Amino acid sequence: MSEVMAEATSAPSRQSATAGKGHDVRPNATPAPAVTRAAAVLDALADSLTGRLTLSDLARELAIPKSSTSNLLQALEDAELITRVGTDYALGVKLVELGAAYLSRRDEVKEFYRFCEQAPLLNAATVRIAMLDGDNVIYLARYEGHPAVRLTSNIGDKMPVSLCSVGKALVAKLHDHDLDEQFPDDVALPIMTSKSLKTGRELKAEIRSIRAQGYAFEDEESTLGVVSLGVAVPTRGSHGPSLGVSVTALKATFSEAEREAMVGELRDLTKMLGNPMG
User: Locate the HTH iclR-type domain: which residues (predicted)?
Assistant: First the structure.
């Protein structure tokens, strides 16, 4: 899932951003094994390269007999959380309804769209709001004015934090000991272009600059020819989600004046999202 792409660039699969996640469905790992297994089915289908898996595939993923897997799949199908496509299974339409309901109740998403529509520069660009999720960000919403850059990532997609400006802006808010634990110096980071950050040491070195300037810059690290600016949203209370916003541009036409103006609007947006009554 590339942060962005110019017309001819293709994005990697969702699976590449979540590789190695695994699904622990041991009965003693949870007080509700059936729910855990159902969640593992949905995760497996979401991570699949084709978006489809067979009964045998899912039984192996859950490490339970086919008969138990079949009963679980039937219950999920009855709830429209999955659907049958021939002999395969895929995610169901009910998940779209649930996701839409979740987003429609987030005030930040509503305010995000409202601000972008009125901002002089952002209203003609592609802007996104994302939430930190471990080593990734999840895109919650996307505003498209008349952008020169077309995005390949969709709402709900994940992206490694080291490959996008909004991800780097969000992890820059973490404490140093959390950064060291999450990104050891010698850890290998996902790579999409020759300019991608390669190690935890490189990421943490850049984070020092991000903290000093108050925003993150992605310089062709996910897609050649494309740059991105990202700013974190001030957290609403101690338990608020870690949110950030980003805007993309073509490097060939990107100027320092545009950088300063876009960062200014992003900062105004994050202040509004973090303190809507202010």
Answer: 32-93
